[in-house]
Design a protein that fits this description.
The chain has 74 residues and is mostly helical. It has three helices and two strands. The protein has a two-stranded antiparallel sheet with strand order 1-2. The longest helix is centred in the C-terminal third of the chain and has 19 residues. The protein is globular, with a radius of gyration of 13 Å.
Length: 74
């Protein structure tokens, strides 16, 4: 069974910026948190409309996509 996407973009939601499904929270916000050294729990505390499972799913999907593109097993 295919995994539900954690993220989507639509031209009418923040001009097509990728956001977590069911929210208007940009994926870039999570990446900014992680870059600053904050964890997923800090992110979901700051953005309660995003579920922790969505953030984990997004990171897993992104990892698989990058590994697929690079030809690495994943």
């Amino acid at each position: 069974m295919p995994e539900e996407p954690a993220v989507h973009s639509h031209p009418e939601i923040l001009g097509g910026t990728p956001v977590f499904v069911g929210t208007r929270v940009p994926v870039q916000a999570l990446l900014d948190y992680l870059e600053e050294g904050d964890g997923i729990d800090s992110f979901v505390d700051a953005f309660p409309t995003v579920k922790r499972e969505q953030t984990v799913s997004f990171l897993q999907q992104a990892t698989r996509a990058l590994l697929y593109r690079s030809g690495e097993p994943g």
